[in-house]
Amino acid sequence: MSSKMRSDTHFERVLSYFDENGDGKVSPSELRHRVSMMGGELLQKEAEMAIEALDSDGDGFLSLEDLVVLMEGGREEEKLEDLRDAFEMYDTKRCGFITSKSLKKMFRRMGDSKSIDECRFMINQFDLNEDGMLSFHEFTIMMH
């Protein structure tokens, strides 16, 4: 079974939890009811606004596709945050770039000795603007 199939099944289970009448869509009142069952509180207007913000086809309901976008979007933000944290570990001077010197220092901290030339070579592999440093954007490309 592929991970895509597993994740679609997961999203379908989440949808069916909120979709009390089984029509394949989540209405504002269904959203409110389920949130209250989980111990939260959501006003009708808040539920309507939440669904309106996520509703891709304008029918006033959340579909499976809307739910997938919502849940996958959160994962993407988490990935970006993790990449930012990793980038900051290498950006030892907090200058917004990874230099060959800061890369060498990070390798040394991890118990791995690299020459400055080896570090320059690694950076050059992903240095799109050829300035000798990695920006966060270049770093994210390297990590994907």
UniProtKB/TrEMBL annotation:
InterPro entries: EF-hand-dom_pair (IPR011992), EF_Hand_1_Ca_BS (IPR018247), EF_hand_dom (IPR002048), EF_hand_pair_protein_CML-like (IPR039647). Keywords: Calcium, Metal-binding, Repeat. PROSITE patterns: EF_HAND_1, EF_HAND_2. One of its GO terms (molecular function) is calcium ion binding. It holds the Pfam family EF-hand_7. SMART domains: EFh. It comes from the Eukaryota. Residues 6-41, 42-77, 78-113, 114-144 form the EF-hand domain. This is EF-hand domain-containing protein. It comes from Lupinus luteus (European yellow lupine).
